[in-house]
Design a protein that fits this description.
The chain is α+β, with helices and mostly antiparallel strands and 135 residues long. The chain contains 3 helices and 4 strands, in the order ββαββαα. It is globular.
Length: 135
């Protein structure tokens, strides 16, 4: 129902040399990204103002780990979308503002039946293991 159309690609994460971070944050070359929009958008709306609450880009990342479940995250600017037609025109985050508007608030309420953290995605699994499955 949401993010039903998108594109995927293989990606790698290149960490800053000598990073103090652990696990996949040290780098990984076995990942998949999926770029999509949360809902279909009205292409007849051409201005940046008309993009808001119409164009909702986001992405998901799946880092493959040998012998372990993958480390995954989703990120967006916000569920109400962006005020630009540029997919990368705003920073994406794994912590987004709450929804506004009746329809999106209803979706958030449904998501809340599964988690108390509807607008956040933790990254603990990214720090626990490298892509070889080593702690």
């Amino acid at each position: 129902m949401i993010h039903s159309v998108g594109n995927t690609a293989g990606v790698k994460f290149i960490a800053t040399p000598n990073t103090p971070y652990t696990g996949l944050f040290k780098g990984a070359d076995s990942a998949i990204i999926r770029l999509s929009c949360a809902k279909g958008f009205d292409k007849t709306k051409s201005t940046a103002k008309e993009a808001f609450d119409n164009f909702t880009p986001g992405f998901g990342l799946k880092f493959l780990i040998d012998g372990k479940p993958s480390a995954n995250l989703v990120a967006m600017f916000g569920v109400n979308g962006v005020d630009t037609w540029n997919f990368f025109g705003r920073d994406f985050s794994n912590h987004i503002p709450g929804a506004s508007g009746a329809a999106l608030t209803a979706v958030a309420t449904k998501f809340a039946t599964a988690t108390n953290h509807v607008t956040t995605v933790g990254l603990k699994t990214f720090a626990e293991f490298n892509q070889k499955g080593e702690e």
